Amino acid sequence: MTSNKAKEINKKDKLVGKRFGKLKVLSVYKKGKYKKCKCICDCGNTTDVYYSNLVSGRTVSCGCRGAEIANSYKNIVGEIYHDLIVEEKTEKREDGLIVWKM
Ligand SMILES: [Zn+2]
Prior knowledge:
By secondary structure, the chain is mainly β. It has two helices and nine strands, in the order βββββααββββ. The strands form three sheets. Strands 1, 2, 3, 4 and 5 form a five-stranded antiparallel beta sheet that branches.
């Protein structure tokens, strides 16, 4: 193994430019013995996450919508839940989830 002190930031990493959930990888660097990625989130925040958490899918946002999952994110207008019809999306959020008007 050769050590390469000058290459702290690896812009050529295959993850650069890739998208994981709400995060897009800007650069990859090494912190101690761990690889980390600087990412930009859809909300506009930049965040640093562990490389392994990104590729495994454990980290998919900067934390702004940590609880948000694909299911809660799709448009469900017109769908019926327990005899309730979803009328529209509201601006309200509870625990990071969209509140739907029934
Ligand atoms: Zn975010």
